[in-house]
Design brief:
Layout lengths: L1 E3 L1 E4 L2 E4 L5 E9 L4 E8 L6 E5 L8 E11 L2 E4 L5 E5 L4 E3 L11 E3 L3 E5 L6 H168 L2 H13 L5 E6 L4 E6 L8 E6 L3 E2 L19 E3 L3 E2 L18 E3 L50 E9 L17 E8 L6 E2 L9 E7 L5 E3 L6 H9 L8 E5 L18 H8 L3 E5 L1
Parallel strand pairs: 16-18, 17-19, 20-21, 21-23, 22-24, 24-25, 25-26
Antiparallel strand pairs: 1-6, 2-3, 4-5, 4-7, 5-6, 7-8, 7-9, 9-12, 10-11, 13-14, 13-15
Length: 572
């Protein structure tokens, strides 16, 4: 379908060239939809749009034709809306807008486009077209104004072109100068290359000479190394010879001394044999005169019983015989005396009981000075219920730093008079439950070298220590613990020294004889709490302001230290 586009100039229709336009659209409009048509601009008449109407895509019916676009950014649209019908049944079609006629522009087809004259159904479209006429008039004025702007732009463009031509002439001159400079540069570069070739030749000669010098130096260094190696070998050989000579002289001297010693010892042996024979006669007479035959027999039995260093030699109270057994076994309740405990290393994780689970009232002393506790980790029930034990000898510098379990270690050792704990560390101990339970004969426990920070269980550690006067500690941190009764039952020490910390749960430290300074060790160890917690002290330390009548009460300021940390202090 060919659509001529014209504009109204002074009341006359004038062809409107389309190549300068953009965004051209051709639409068929009905009451329900707008269908856009593909189109081109006629090659001969540049004001004619050739639109493609596809009958198989567009429904049959009557449509208004709308044409619109832009020129110089301004919108324009058709002033009149032509009426077009899509018909079928081999209808004749007039595909050119304008006069409807038949002839060379008519075709015969199954579906055709028919250009219709306006009818009364298109009144609304006609009215809109009239309104568009006015808009087109205004657009014409705008086009005139745009044309004037275009003329001014063209004038500016001409001036810009003149300036561009002048700039191009300047550029050409500059390019000529650049070409000349480039030629000079190429000449200089040729001279530089020649000089560089001469330098490279000289450098090559220098490298060759340097390589020869390096080879000579390497040969000299190699020869020097071989000379040094040979000299070192000679020196070492001389040193070895001298050392061998010294060893020979030393050995010869030792041999001479040994021979002299042997000769002297042989003389002394012969003399001693005579003296011992006389002394033996005197000793036998002394035994008979003092009725020591039984002690001699016991000593002979002990001597004859020892078979190794890893044994107990003990008196069996059940039959009166001296016996031996490996010191990895427990002695049991019938052992009446331990004459020899041998040597032994207590191993990590090993749980060992010297006595066993049954009470032993007979053993009075035991010497474990030959035992090694450095690797020990479990000392639970080590001397459990050795109720008759009065003296315990441990290694002078006993090492208990790896022990974690001291539970009931000296449980029930009620006859034990003293225990040297001053060098213990117990840095890794986690369980002190019942460690000194019922050690009622101890008057002092010295843990002043201990920094105990990992222990979680202090239950009955110091229970029933009737005669305990002094407890010395280094540092105890109660942070891992819950509530604690530190001095239960008949434990009433007078003096406590050292440092406590980490007390954050209910804590009992009741002693009828404890000093005010000892109470302050507990008070200074309290942590600040946000929930109600109670510290219980002995009535001997009750402040006078609260009715206390004890011999060494704490002051109100002492009490305030605890209450300021959120604690309640009571006295029993």
């Amino acid at each position: 379908m060919r659509i001529p586009v014209v504009k109204i100039v002074d009341g006359e229709k004038v062809a409107f060239p389309l190549p300068g336009c953009t965004d051209i659209m051709v639409r068929l409009c009905s009451a329900y939809r707008r269908l856009e048509l593909a189109h081109t601009i006629d090659a001969k008449e540049d004001n004619v749009i050739v639109a493609r109407v596809e009958g198989d895509r567009i429904p049959l019916g009557t449509y208004a034709l709308e044409v619109r676009g832009k020129i110089f950014g301004n919108d324009w649209r058709s002033n009149e809306y032509e009426q077009v019908a899509i018909v079928d049944r081999n209808a004749d079609a007039d595909t050119e807008l304008g006069n409807t006629d038949e002839g060379e522009d008519s075709v015969e087809m199954d579906t055709a486009v028919v250009i219709l004259p306006p009818d009364r159904e298109l009144d609304a479209l006609v009215k809109e077209a009239l309104a568009q006429n006015k808009a087109m008039s205004e657009l014409s004025d705008a086009i005139k104004a745009s044309e004037e702007g275009r003329a001014k732009s063209e004038e500016l463009r001409a001036k810009s072109e003149e300036a561009r031509v002048q700039a191009e002439l300047t550029r050409a001159n500059n390019e000529a100068e650049r070409v000349q400079a480039e030629q000079v540069r190429e000449s200089s570069e040729g001279q530089r290359l020649a000089a560089e070739q001469g330098r490279a030749s000289a450098e090559s000669a220098r490298v060759t000479e340097e390589s020869a010098r390096v080879d000579a130096e390497n040969a000299r260094v190699t020869a020097e190394g071989e000379r040094v190696t040979a000299e070192n070998a000679r020196t070492e050989a001389e040193a070895a010879r001298q050392e061998a000579e010294n060893e020979r002289v030393t050995a010869e001297t030792a041999r001479v001394e040994a021979e002299n010693t042997r000769v002297t010892a042989e003389g002394e042996r012969e003399q001693g044999f005579t003296e011992k024979a006389a002394h033996l006669e005197e000793l036998l007479q002394y035994i008979k005169d003092n009725h020591l035959e039984v002690d001699v027999k016991l000593a002979e039995a002990i001597k004859n019983t020892i078979k190794g260093t890893d044994e107990f030699v003990y008196l069996d109270g059940s039959d009166g015989n001296v016996k031996s057994m490996l010191n990895t076994r427990s002695l049991g309740p019938s052992a009446a005396a331990v004459y020899y405990a041998g040597k032994r290393s207590v191993m990590p994780g090993e749980s060992y009981m010297v006595i066993g689970y049954r009470k032993n009232e007979l053993i009075r002393s035991i010497d474990l000075s030959g035992w090694d506790f450095e690797a020990a980790t479990d000392m639970a029930r080590f001397l459990y219920f050795a109720s008759g034990l009065q003296t315990l000898t441990l290694p002078e510098n006993v090492m208990l730093g790896n022990v974690t379990n001291m539970s009931q270690c000296f449980y029930g050792c009620g006859s034990l008079q003293s225990l040297d704990t001053s060098k213990w560390t117990l840095a890794n101990v986690t369980d002190m439950n019942g460690c000194f339970y019922d050690c009622e004969s101890l008057r002092e426990i010295d843990l002043s070298s201990c920094n105990i920070t990992k222990c979680r269980n202090w239950d009955h550690c110091f229970t029933t220590l009737d005669n305990l006067e002094t407890l010395r500690i280094g540092l105890i941190d109660f942070s891992p613990c819950g509530s604690i009764d530190f001095f239960p039952w008949e434990t009433n020490p007078r003096e406590l020294t050292g440092t406590l910390r980490g007390i954050r749960n209910d804590f009992r430290a009741v002693s009828r004889r404890m000093t005010r300074d000892s109470c302050m060790v507990f008070i200074n160890g309290l942590e600040t709490v946000t929930e109600a917690k109670t510290l219980t002290l002995g009535v001997n330390n009750k402040p006078v302001s609260l009715g206390g009548k004890g011999s060494d009460p704490i002051s109100d300021d002492d009490l305030k230290i605890a209450t300021d940390k959120g604690w309640t202090v009571q006295f029993e």
